[in-house]
Sequence to fold (360 residues):
Amino acid sequence: MSTAGVKWRVLRLKRLLARLQKLWSVKRNSSKQVYVQDRVPEYREIWRAVAEHLGASFGLVDDDLWEIGLGERKTRILNYKLQFDDPVTLEMAGRKPLVFRLLSEKGLRIPEHRVFRLEQLDRAVAFLEGFPGGCVVKPANGTSSALGVTTHVQTRHEVRKAAVLASLYDSELLIERMIPGESYRLLVLDGEVIHAVRRRGPRLVGDGSSSVAELIRKENSRLALRGEPVLGISRDCLFTLKSQGLSLSSILPTGRTFVVQSVNDFRQRLTEVRTVYNEDVSDVVCDSLKKDAVSAAAFLGSRFMGVDVITRDPTASLEECGGAIIEVNTTPGLHHHYDLHREKFPKPAPRVVRALLQHH
Fold:
């Protein structure tokens, strides 16, 4: 058997083992992450509260299927899925390489990327060589909630491992350059950004004498005393610091704030980390970002879309700070847009339902 044949058989075996590990992980729920399909009771109460707020009726069609009515107008909601876009638009938006091509043709910023298959690992490795700071490997089509995604990939071995994981979800794979910054979701409805949220990373403040490493140690001592998760000096930490022109030995002026990590996951994992948005930044994102998000939705023909952007500065254009649109979501979950413990429903939810009722 040829060397290529042996390598392919090894990859197939690794993929089989990864599949078994994944099935076992799902059965044990070892990731401890809550996905949108697990939020049926939460969404039921969201839509019930929104209907009450609007003076509309709320009825159960099935356990996860509900109907909201106001006068003669009615709309049905399946958990988080709403009656906005047609099946062709939904399918098209799930094809990440296609979306990148269409957005790029319209002049919108996207990450440098390459499409490959599991048996074409050399293509991905060659791409990685151009971006030694790190890449993202993910399924190319039809996934969400970070399923099959590995970040901060830096070596050939890691490319292979990440590709095997991604191949459990799709035969076509993507490798992208890591974009420095925090993750934002801009919610677009009928040509307007109606809400925006950020996955806010932990921040520290310089004191003029302590290095970044010392500031992290001091903060971890305080966090440990309160019984809270500590900050790790992970790849995400080092990547985030570097994007700000910093290192662990940097000493910042008194009062200067800096981001320690762009990902707010205390377990410091690199695979399948679901984005948890935790800050309303609707009044912070600039008009340029809003224009890009609206344009992305319009180019793809979507009435209701979540446009995911990574940027270091939401008050500047993507061109100015090296940001990019990394994904679009035509069934955006509104649970990202509120605090369950303080609010009955997401702020944009009544406007979304009113748009549905007008359409129907």
